[in-house]
Amino acid sequence: MQGIPGRVEAQSRDTVINKFAVKADLVPLYFDIFDNREQARIGLDFEMNIAKRSFISFYWDMGLYDHYSFIKYYDFFNQGPGFYSVEQKIKITGFHFMPAYNYYFWHSKVKSHQGMYAGGILDINYYRRLYDVYNSNLDETNSGKNHQFRMGAGLSLGGKYCFGSQFFVEIKTSFLAKIFKVASDKDIQVVKPINAQWVDIKNNFWWVSNLNLGYAF
Amino acid sequence: MHFKQNRIRLFVFFIFILLLIQACSKREEISDDDYFGTKVMILGHRGMGEMYRFPGNTLQAIMPALAIGTDGCEVDVQITKDTVLVLYHNLLLDSRTTCSGRVYESNWAELQQCQYNAIQNGIYVNSVDSVFRKIPGLTNLYFSFDCTKVDTAIDDQDHYRGQLLRAIQRICEKYHMCNNVFLEGYGDLLDKAQSLGMTNKLFIFGNLDENTINFAAERHYCGVSTSIDALNVDTELAHQKGLYVMTWSPDNYAENKKALRRNVDIIQTDDPISILKLLKRYNYEYIIP
Predict the structure, then answer these.
(1) Can you tell me the ipTM of this complex?
(2) SS3 content of chain B, % helix, strand, coil (to 5)
(3) Please, are residues A206 and A176 in contact by the beta-carbon 8 Å criterion?
(4) CB B71 within 8 A of CB B42
(5) Mean pLDDT over all residues of chain B?
(6) From the CA atom positions of chain A, what is the Rg in Å?
(7) Residue A3 or residue B222, greater confidence
(8) Are B78 and B108 in contact (CB under 8 A)?
(9) Which of A38, A44, A65, A71 should one mutate to test binding to chain B, selecting the residue with the greatest count of B CBs within 10 A?
């Protein structure tokens, strides 16, 4: 029996061949482009199809999250101690590890990495915050560091579109809620999830979006 | 062959990412040095600016502006019938609140029930006293009181100005803010402030031109308060006469930069976030409500 060309094509691109994928997230570049803060972050995702309609993914977002100065000036008219500044230099490094389980509610029959999906996601993150505070009036610098570990869980929704046989673009959005947080110093301000596009004022909920370029193999 | 092609594609892809990161690493630097040897003062226009979700001249708009790093705020002040100093922009209450009538015709007891027509319920007209009471480190901050909202329907304008200025004086003395509250107004109000012995810094309201500069210099005002679009002459002209130039209200990144390039001394901005970030004066750790 002669094979049907379209069927052969479909089989060659099914989940058996493209079982895995690696993805690079472009969203961490946002702050570098639009914000006056230094970041050197990289977002990488590895995913694995575990069934016809579902896959698991392990997303790592890591690096330098923040490196900025916050300068506050005082006594602009020299009517008190004289014009002076307090400059805080903040450096935050860390990682977000986000494992997820996703289920395709719409899936292309031809391309294994094309479809719309929903799933559950965890956000396990750690930040190390280094600070130097310089007061020009006192000519004094205070330095220190603190650590913060937080875990959140939530739901995500995403879609993938293939171009070519192995490359694809993915848009994913996740809404997360805090499960617990541990900080080395309770007196300092909580570091908000820096990978998030929105954080609620109490730091209990956050929203993360990813724009991934992927390669399936 | 197929495998080799894929490796090339992957290599090109990662080179593209690296180039993108490199391209983004260049940042623009702009000076915030002031003519008088300090730095340009950044004030939030009515708080967080006109585009903010909460109405201006309220505690809900002022507190975030101060928390993100502004040096203070510009606010509009008026007095009630019982001479309580309130923060409100328009002359008529109908235009922005659930109440009707004029501010100076209402008592404070009535006015504090007036709720703003805003996205969120429960935002009321504030008195200056109630706002100042809740600001930590108040004496390190600066407020510019826009006193130009004098209703032409008031019969005795001079009497009203006197009452308004005395109300300001009481608040400034109560909170030790006489050096930190500027008064923006027309000549007659500023002259009245001088005659009352007020030590607040006085800013004449108008275009930045030779007439205004000479007028302000003759009367020993602190400076000129002018629109970003009315900087008709070089600010250097005002500076040479010892006058500060305060400008309002750039409302985006480009306008903020324009204000800095014109070497003004005080900027009342509707977009405090972008200018503070530009000048490394933004508190990234604060979450704006």
Answers:
(1) 0.86
(2) 40, 20, 45
(3) yes
(4) yes
(5) 90
(6) 23
(7) B222
(8) no
(9) A71
Of the candidates B17, B142, B281, which has its C-beta nearest A72's C-beta? B281
List the single residue in A37, A70, A83 with the smallest CB-CB distance to B69: A70
Beta-bridge partners for A43: A25, A61
What average pLDDT does this structure show over B229-233?
90
Q: Cβ contacts (< 8 Å) between A83 and chain B: which residues? A: 37-39
Among A20, A30, A21, A22, which residue's Cα sits nearest to residue A209?
A: A30
Q: How far is CA A59 from the centre of its chain?
A: 8
In the block, residue with structure tokens 């289920």:
A103
Residue of A nearest to B38 (CA): A76
Task: Identify all chain B residues contacting A77, using CB atoms and an 8 Å cutoff.
Answer: 38, 179, 201
Taking the alpha carbons at both ends of chain B, their separation in whole angstroms is 56
Name the one residue in this structure whose structure tokens are 């199809």. A49
Search chain A and give the residue with CA nearest B182: A77
Q: What's the pLDDT at A52? A: 80
**Both tokens of residue B96?**
């922005």
The Cα–Cα gap between B65 and B53 comes to 13
Name the region of A12 (left: φ>0; alpha: ψ -120 to 50; beta: rest).
alpha
In this prediction, residue A13 carries a pLDDT of 45
Distance in angstroms (rounded) separating the CA atoms of residues B12 and B19: 11
Q: What is the pLDDT of residue A11?
A: 44
Query: Whole-prediction pTM value?
Result: 0.82
Residue A42 phi, psi (nearest 5): -135, 135
Helix (H, G, I), strand (E, B) or coil at B275: helix
How far, in Å, are A32, A126, A150, B254 from residue A181 at the CA level? 27, 10, 4, 40
- Which residues in chain A touch residue B181, judged by CB atoms under 8 angstroms apart? none
**Tens-of-pLDDT digits for all 217 residues of chain A?**
344 444 444 444 444 456 788 888 877 776 666 666 677 888 888 888 888 888 899 998 888 888 889 999 999 999 988 999 999 999 999 999 999 999 998 887 777 678 899 999 999 999 999 999 999 999 999 999 999 999 999 999 999 888 877 788 889 999 999 999 888 887 777 788 888 888 998 889 999 998 888 888 7
How many other CB atoms are there within 10 angstroms of residue A103's CB atom?
A: 14
Angle at B205 between CA B199 and CA B209, to 5 degrees: 115
Cβ of B120 under 8 Å from any chain A Cβ?
no
Taking the CA of residue B159 and the nearest CA in chain A, the distance in Å comes to 32
Residues of B in contact with A199 (CB under 8 A): 287
Of A195, A197, A204, the C-alpha closest to A176 is A204
DSSP code at position B219: T
Measured between alpha carbons, how far is B127 from B83 in angstroms, rounded to an integer? 11
